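R.M. (postdoc): so does anyone remember the format we settled on? I'll just put the structure tokens first.
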């Protein structure tokens, strides 16, 4: 990669400040208190009710019934609960088990039992991607990215509202005739959302920073764009504590190929408050300069702003990490660079404030592609280094694109492990000393790169990205929902172990100068809003799949007939133990896996095996033929041979003991009449 001609992406990934989404205890208790479970006198069933719903006046007015929500149904079904009538005692046991689980999830919401894991691909038949996602106050999620499958232009911004299990509630596209996309979304006052990204349909020529505010239903409240005649690259945004939003990006300095960093502050109504530029020209006659590329921004507890990114110095052909602190009005307070000896280029792509008022800056450092190391700097409030960590394996590239503080001493990081032809999502957790707690990789097939991860509504993790392997199109948006340790249902076969190790390194810190750049132009935009047509494709958990076989041996014979029933079961993606139910066709049954059964009476019996496991069912059937025994038919083939007639005569002569049902009256002796019965069987005169 020739950094003299370095081009930042139109949308870049960024870090995010601490934003807890774990449900509070009061919310969970309130949710629990709004449910009731009813048991009828004769059969058992669950009846969920919300206090705000009208109560039934049919039957017992004290019972309120409604259909369980999809989350409630899956919550119970995953634990073996069936929404059918069951015996009262069993139903009471299941009710008790359900209440135990709900109580557990109330007080220990991070229990794996209480966290749903799932994955969906979303999109049409072209290229689509999801870049950011948030847990909503109403439950579920809202995701943003772009689509080339539908909308007004070549590429439109795309927003999807999802339920807690990934189902689409609504989706909309935003844009004009050219290329538009969303990189990030953030909560805004009043339950609204900010959407930030890039537009070519509106504003000045080339790329423009694009910011919209939408209501909870996706309707645009206001929108605007900022640009420059040489093009403007959006990199990050952040909602501020006064309800507004701050944007950062970079553009070309006039007369030079280098870039200048920008920070723009807007009110909650989209009115420009201030903008700051920073960059430095080297020399007056030769327009060489230092590139400033801000990639992520965070607001501090003191209401200042701290940015991280990179700076490129042409005459040494190296890039350094850059961290800049701004006052609440955009004034530059300090600007420092950080050089790691593991590689000659890199940059900080995510930043968060720690409990002590310092900062965790994370990104990548590359000696040469595809090699690379994920680098984390722990800085104090003035940018001094407290500690640093470098992770990798010495052979492929590792980098970090997003970070979240989940507690005062726990931090989540989202990034990638990549080579020239393969990318994998990489997620890991560190403690406050920088020690790795766990790490995971996600992906199959072609390149996959991480979007901006989030804490789910149940305390698990949710990650947006794209996939070439799942969905209906060339490339679909992809969302992965894990538990709080990155684990998923065993049927999610794209989850892999990660093995990034810590490497020794040295960090060199310098103060860096800055200078003003050209002012950005603000433009009015008028995006078309259309309903999206993306298709949701479930990736996992895959439904339980059963393949069963059954045999009955022998299938024919004379009464009394002993039959051995045997079963074989192959199950995939199933949890729990299978339930077996044999029906023998004579009013008897068994729940054993393999069982022997005797048919004492002649007749035709239709048997059936039913196996149920984790909501799936498999059945097999067959028929048993039981015949009336024929006197003298010793081998049970329903024919009497001349040899069997001779055996009957020997029994009459007392040469052998009575057998083969020749002694019809069971008196211990074979009479001449009983021998005649055997002869009739031989002649076919009488058969059973």
């Amino acid at each position: 990669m020739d950094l003299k001609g370095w081009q930042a992406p139109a949308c870049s990934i960024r870090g995010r400040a601490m934003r807890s989404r774990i449900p509070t205890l009061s919310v969970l208790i309130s949710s629990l208190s709004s449910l009731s479970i009813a048991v009828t006198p004769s059969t058992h069933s669950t009846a969920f009710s919300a206090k705000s719903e009208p109560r039934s006046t049919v039957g017992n007015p004290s019972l309120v019934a409604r259909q369980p929500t999809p989350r409630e149904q899956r919550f119970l079904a995953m634990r073996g609960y069936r929404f059918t009538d069951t015996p009262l005692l069993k139903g009471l046991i299941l009710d008790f088990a359900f209440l135990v689980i709900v109580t557990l999830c109330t007080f220990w919401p991070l229990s794996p039992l209480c966290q749903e894991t799932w994955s969906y691909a979303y999109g049409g038949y072209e290229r689509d991607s999801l870049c950011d996602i948030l847990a909503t106050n109403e439950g579920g999620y809202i995701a943003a990215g772009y689509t080339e499958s539908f909308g007004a232009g070549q590429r439109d911004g795309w927003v999807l509202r999802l339920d807690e299990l990934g189902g689409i509630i609504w989706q909309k596209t935003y844009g004009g005739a050219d290329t538009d996309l969303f990189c990030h979304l953030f909560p805004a006052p009043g339950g609204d959302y900010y959407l930030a990204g890039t537009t070519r349909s509106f504003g000045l020529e080339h790329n423009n920073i694009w910011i919209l505010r939408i209501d909870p239903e996706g309707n645009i409240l206001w929108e605007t764009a900022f640009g420059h005649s040489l093009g403007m690259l959006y990199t990050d945004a952040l909602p501020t504590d006064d309800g507004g939003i701050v944007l950062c990006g970079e553009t070309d300095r006039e007369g030079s190929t280098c870039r200048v960093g920008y920070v723009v502050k807007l009110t909650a109504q989209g009115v420009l408050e201030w903008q700051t530029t920073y960059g430095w020209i080297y020399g007056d006659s030769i327009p060489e300069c230092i590139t400033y590329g801000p990639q992520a921004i965070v607001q501090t507890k003191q209401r200042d702003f701290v940015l991280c990114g990179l700076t490129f110095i042409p005459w040494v052909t190296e890039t350094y990490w850059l961290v800049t602190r701004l006052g609440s009005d955009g004034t530059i307070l300090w600007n420092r660079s950080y050089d790691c000896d593991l590689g000659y280029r890199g940059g900080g792509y995510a930043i968060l404030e720690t409990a002590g008022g310092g900062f965790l800056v994370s990104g990548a450092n590359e000696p040469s592609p595809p090699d690379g190391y994920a680098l984390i700097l722990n800085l104090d409030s003035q940018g001094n280094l407290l500690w640093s960590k470098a992770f990798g394996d010495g052979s492929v590239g590792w980098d970090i694109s997003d970070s979240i503080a989940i507690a005062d001493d726990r931090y989540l990081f989202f990034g990638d492990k990549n080579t020239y032809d393969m990318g994998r999502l990489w997620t890991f957790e560190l403690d406050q000393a920088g020690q790795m707690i766990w790490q995971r990789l996600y992906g199959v097939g072609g390149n996959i790169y991480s979007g901006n991860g989030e804490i789910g509504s149940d305390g698990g993790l949710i990650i947006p990205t794209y996939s070439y392997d799942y969905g209906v199109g060339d490339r679909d948006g992809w969302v992965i929902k894990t538990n709080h340790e990155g684990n998923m249902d065993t049927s999610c076969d794209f989850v892999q172990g990660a093995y990034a190790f810590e490497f020794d390194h040295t960090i060199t810190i310098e103060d860096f100068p800055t200078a003003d750049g050209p002012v950005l132009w603000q433009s009015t935009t008028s995006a078309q809003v259309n309903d999206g047509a993306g298709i949701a494709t479930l990736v996992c958990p895959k439904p339980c799949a059963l393949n069963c076989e059954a045999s009955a041996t022998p299938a024919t014979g004379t009464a009394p007939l002993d039959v051995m029933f045997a079963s074989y079961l192959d199950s995939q993606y199933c949890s729990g133990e299978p339930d077996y139910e044999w029906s023998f066709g004579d009013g008897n049954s068994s729940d054993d896996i393999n069982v022997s059964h005797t048919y004492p009476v002649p007749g035709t019996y239709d048997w059936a095996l039913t196996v149920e496991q984790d909501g799936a069912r498999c059945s097999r059937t067959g028929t048993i033929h039981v015949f009336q025994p024929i006197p003298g038919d010793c081998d049970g083939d329903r024919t009497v041979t001349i040899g069997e007639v001779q055996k009957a005569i020997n029994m009459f002569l007392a040469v052998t003991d009575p057998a083969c049902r020749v002694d019809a009256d069971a008196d211990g002796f074979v009479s001449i009449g009983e021998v005649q019965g055997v002869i009739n069987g031989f002649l076919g005169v009488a058969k059973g």
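R.M.: ...and that's the designed sequence above, right after the tokens. Also worth knowing: The helical segments are 25-33, 70-77, 88-107, 642-652, 672-683. The chain has four domains: 3-22+112-526, 25-107, 545-627, 642-683.
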